[in-house]
Design brief:
The protein has 1 helix and 4 strands, in the order αββββ. The longest helix is centred in the N-terminal third of the chain and has 6 residues. With 56 residues, it is of the alpha+beta class. The model has no long low-confidence stretch (mean pLDDT 94).
Length: 56
């Protein structure tokens, strides 16, 4: 996963507007607020609530 660090300063969770942190091992951006995990495909974050993995 090759994301620009400046991107993480700007992008927020579309569901709750909390910050996102990169999980390199899983290839996801994880929300600090609600815990949703958004996939990153071909180095492009997919920030769609319907595509997010919801914490169990």
């Amino acid at each position: 996963m090759n994301l620009d660090p400046r991107l993480l300063d700007v992008v927020v969770c579309p569901a709750c507007r909390s910050s996102l942190a990169a999980d390199e091992a899983a290839g996801e951006l994880v929300c600090a607020g609600c815990g949703r995990a958004y996939p990153v495909r071909d180095d492009i974050p997919v920030l769609l609530v319907d595509e997010a993995r919801v914490p169990s």
